[in-house]
Amino acid sequence: MEKSEIQIIVGKRIKELRIQKGITQVELVGRMRGEIDPTNISRMESGKTNITIYQLYRLSEGLEIPMKDFLDFELPEK
């Protein structure tokens, strides 16, 4: 599996969790106390950026969920 494929899967998971919480990307940035541009959230959710562990930590704080929830998915079979 390519790195970009995993980025897309994780990004979709981030978006799914954010939508479940009923918040916008801009609201998520506010919950993360700024210091991140809303376009960065968009790039993460679309899989266009390689998310760091620290970014996942900050997202988990903003969404008030455990970090492990971002990785709660099955990889597609080859």
Automatic annotation (TrEMBL):
Protein source organism: Chryseobacterium elymi
GO molecular function, one term: DNA binding
Annotated HTH cro/C1-type domain residues: 14-70
InterPro entries with a match to the protein in the record: Cro/C1-type_HTH, Lambda_DNA-bd_dom_sf
Coiled coil start-end: none
Pfam families: HTH_19
Protein name: XRE family transcriptional regulator
Source species, domain of life: Bacteria
